[in-house]
Amino acid sequence: MERVEPALVPQRKLSNGMVIPGIGMGTFGNDRFSPEQTAEAVYGAIKAGYRLFDCAAAYGNEKDIGKVFGQAFSKGIVQREELTIMSKVWNDMHGKGDVLVACATSLRELGLDYLDIYMVHWPFPNYHAPGAHLDGRNPDAVPFSVEEYMRTWRQMERLVDMGLVRSIGMSNMTITKLEQILPLCRIRPTVLEVEMNPTFQQPKLFEYCKAHDILPIAFSPMGSPCRPERDTEEGDVVTFELPELMEIAKAHHCHPALICMKWAVQRGHVPIPFSIYENEYIGNLKTVTEDFLTDEEMEVLRRADKNTRLIKGKVFLWEGAKDWRDIWDRED
Ligand SMILES: NC(=O)c1ccc[n+]([C@@H]2O[C@H](COP(=O)([O-])OP(=O)(O)OC[C@H]3O[C@@H](n4cnc5c(N)ncnc54)[C@H](OP(=O)(O)O)[C@@H]3O)[C@@H](O)[C@H]2O)c1
Predict the structure, then answer these.
(1) Known binding site for substrate: residues?
(2) Cα 118 to middle of ligand 1, angstroms
(3) Catalytic residue, candidates 59, 127, 149, 208
(4) To test ligand 1's pocket by mutation, which of 110, 171, 220, 277 has the most ligand atoms within 8 angstroms of CB?
(5) For residue 219, which atom of ligand 1 is closest to its CA?
(6) Domain NADP-dependent oxidoreductase, which positions (predicted)?
C-alpha cells in the first residue's frame, strides 16, 4: 500500500494550542456502507498516513472503528497521541447529564480514554426515527433556543474540565446562532464543522470563523455525491460537474475530487472526505502534498461558488417552520 508521510501533510493550530492535520477522513457510511466496511477503510487510512478521523455516535459504527484503532495501537502502526480523533454528541443526548453519558459511550466504543475534539452535532435536540417519511415532521422537534444550546454546551465544557476531551467544537451552526452563543461560552469552540465545498463555500461564515479563531472543518467536501436520499432535492448541483472544477482537474490530469481537496487545504479549512476505496482515500491525502493550485486557479474556484447547500437537514424541521432554510436562519 502506498503511504503518505504524515509530516508532509499541512497542519493547523487551534485556538487552545492543539495542532491537528489539515485533512482528515470522514466515517459516515451514508447509509450505503456497513460499519465493518467503514472501519476497514479507517484501518487502511491509518496505514496510509491519515492522522485525523471524524467520528460520531450517530454514524452507528464507533464500536467497529474502536476495534481497528485498538489493532493499530497494539500492532504499533500508530500511537494514540499521533491521532486526532473527533466525535459528536447526537441530538437525543442534549438533556441534563446526557452529554457525559454520550461521551462516555463514545469513549468506550472507540476504546479511548480521551477524545481530541468533541462536538455538538446539531444545534437542536431534534431527531428522526430511522425510516421515517422524508417530509414527515417530528412533533417533538423544536426551533433553536439559546437556553437549550447552552445547557448542552455547559456539559461540553465540563468534559474539558474532567479531562475527557481536549477541546470542544460545534457543528451545523450559522453566524446568527454563533453571535448569540459565543459571548456565553466559558470554553470557546476550537472548531466548527459545516458543509463546505467548491459549490457551497460559505465565504461569510469562513471569514467569521477566521475572525473568531475557530477552525472550519468541512464536511461533504466533495459535494457528497452519494448522500442519503433525505438530503437530496430536485435541482441540486453536482459539485464534480462544476465546469471550472472540471477544467482545472483536466489541467492537473486528475479527478475533480482531488481538486476539491487541494482547494480546501490551500484555502485553510480542513476537509474530511469519505471513501472506503483505498485508491480514493490515499489519493485524497496524497494530492494535498503535491502539485498545488496556482493563485489564479484558487481565484477561479472562488468565483465559481454556487452558494447551493446540499446537506439541508430537512429531517430536523419543527412544526411551524417554513422550509429547510429556517434551519440555517435563511443565511444562504
Ligand atoms: N457534522 C455533520 O453534520 C456532517 C454531515 C455530513 C457529513 N459529515 C462528515 O463528513 C464526511 C464526508 O462527507 P460526505 O460523505 O457527506 O461527503 P464527501 O466526502 O463530499 O463525499 C464522499 C463521496 O465522494 C466520493 N469520493 C471520495 N473520494 C473520491 C475520489 N478520490 N474520487 C472520486 N470520488 C470520490 C465517494 O463516492 P464513492 O463511494 O461512490 O466512491 C464518497 O462516497 C462524513 O463521512 C462525515 O464524517 C458530517
Answers:
(1) 121
(2) 20
(3) 59
(4) 220
(5) 10
(6) 22-304
Cβ(275) – ligand 1 distance below 6 Å: yes
Query: Residue of the nearest CA to atom 36 in ligand 1?
Result: 275
86 lines ligand 1 (CB under 6 A): no
Domain presence at residue 330: no
How much distance in Å is there from the Cα of 318 to the middle of ligand 1? 27
Provide the residue range defining the domain that includes 219: 6-325
> For 160-204, what is each residue's pLDDT tens digit?
999 999 999 999 999 999 999 999 999 999 999 999 999 999 999
CA 271 to centroid of ligand 1, rounded, Å: 10
In a domain, 17, yes or no: yes
Answer whether residue 332 is part of any domain: no
Whether 326 and 151 have beta carbons less than 8 Å apart is answered as no
Catalytic residue status for 208 = no
Q: Is 224 in the pocket of ligand 1 (CB under 6 A)?
A: yes
In this structure, what CATH number is given to the domain that contains residue 111? Answer: 3.20.20.100
- pLDDT digit string, tens, across residues 31-82: 899 999 999 999 999 999 999 999 999 999 999 999 999 999 999 999 999 9
Q: How many domains does the chain have?
A: 1
Q: Is the CB of 28 under 6 A from ligand 1?
A: yes
Q: What is the pTM of this model?
A: 0.97
